[in-house]
Amino acid sequence: MADIKIPAEFIPEDGRFGCGPSKIRPAQLAAFATEGAALMGTSHRQAPVKNLVKRVQEGLLELFHNPTGYEIVLGNGGSTAFWDAAAFSLVERKAQNLVHGEFGAKFATALTNPWLEKPTVINGEPGSRLELRAEAGVDSYAYAQNETSTGVATPVTRVAGADAGALMFTDATSAAGGIDFDANQTDVYYFAPQKNFASDGGLWVSLMSPAAVERAERIAASDRYIPEFLSVKTAIDNSRLNQTLNTPAIATLFLLAEQIDWMNANGGLAWADSRTRAASAHLYDWAESSKFATPFVSNPDHRSQVVVTIDFDESVDAAAVAKVLRANSIVDTDPYRKLGRNQLRVATFTATELADVQKLTGAIDYVVSQLG
Ligand SMILES: *Cc1c(COP(=O)(O)O)cnc(C)c1O
């Protein structure tokens, strides 16, 4: 079975379809080999690396349409560390979490702790979408813009009727840089760079509104215990100096900066959005017309344009298909491990070429015909 050889016409130029780590463009790596390499092994407290951080911050503000007063804050530890940082530093008393899968659930767990009231959790069936709702006493509303474990997307909008001063938290880890949005509809838009930003993991980045910065400052000044690594106030202070609290991965910052500049040079977030929309539409259309595949997310309005989940009927073993694809250098199409469905999951991040997604569906059809 694994010795099925997929014809060259169906082999993508780049066979990386994982949801993070994900495809890094050859041009980023080529730039890294020269300009990036010159920064490696040099101090993050000196101008060359601080200028790189500044390039990332300014580039992201431009990409996100320069929302007035917002700033880019960053720190080490990826989005998972940011959940704990938010729990210590940003949620005041009680949150409401909209959960459509694993990642949304993890933030709800981080907010279930001894110093906060138990969050209200709105739990949707995997593959569908519910909505946040105004609730008295809730100061923080949280959801994932793209739930990477299921491929469900949620629009970036404020909760109408929320208490004055309530903040919106958008887990944009796999959406940022691939889906256009209005930053004024959120306060804390956080992500990590190994998805649409085609970089490596280990960093968190957060676009923060003035209200979110004010909240972080107020909680930092209170008597709540906050570990320094998880202090968003400390991260804000360092970010304003184009630094991180502790040593960052310079290569991650460099690859991120290259991807942001590439997006801005080509038309920004609207352009990135149109690319991911076209690539994902090809997959959804293919699945809709396939004899053995169907989009897992049945409501087209809930479907993600950056992570496409496709169920196979029982006549086809998706794991066997993924295995043959992998043996032919088409990698990481496996479903989210805990979802436990007979499906493939394909990232259509901004770096991914539509032509490669078209080859991928050709490759899947070929493999299924051979597995028979
Ligand atoms: C990948 C992902 C995360 C986890 O990111 P890490 O940087 O590995 O901690 C969190 N949320 C979403 C929506 C993701 O896609």
What topology emerges from the helices and strands here?
Layout: H1 26-39, H2 47-63, E1 71-76, H3 78-89, E2 95-99, H4 102-110, E3 120-123, E4 140-144, E5 146-147, E6 152-153, E7 167-171, E8 188-191, E9 203-208, H5 210-221, H6 232-239, H7 250-266, H8 268-289, E10 293-295, E11 307-312, H9 318-327, E12 343-347, H10 354-371
This protein binds pyridoxal-5'-phosphate (PLP).
Folded structure, characterized:
The protein has 372 residues and is α/β, with parallel strands linked by helices. The protein folds into two domains: 8-17 and 267-371, Aspartate Aminotransferase, domain 1, CATH 3.90.1150.10; 41-265, Aspartate Aminotransferase, domain 2. 37% of the residues lie in helices and 14% in strands. A seven-stranded mixed sheet has the order 1-9-8-7-4-2-3, with helices on both faces. A three-stranded antiparallel sheet has the order 10-11-12. A hairpin with a 4-residue loop joins strand 5 (146-147) and strand 6 (152-153). Helix 7 crosses helix 8 (268-289). The longest helix has 22 residues, at 268-289. Pyridoxal-5'-phosphate binds at residues 20, 78-80, 103, 144, 148, 171, 173-174, 192, 201.
Summarize the structure.
The protein has 372 residues and is an alpha/beta fold. It has helices at 26-39, 47-63, 78-89, 102-110, 210-221, 232-239, 250-266, 268-289, 318-327, 354-371; strands at residues 71-76, 95-99, 120-123, 140-144, 146-147, 152-153, 167-171, 188-191, 203-208, 293-295, 307-312, 343-347.
What labels would you give this structure?
Aspartate Aminotransferase, domain 2; binds pyridoxal-5'-phosphate; Aspartate Aminotransferase, domain 1; alpha/beta; 372 residues; three-stranded antiparallel beta sheet; globular; 10 helices
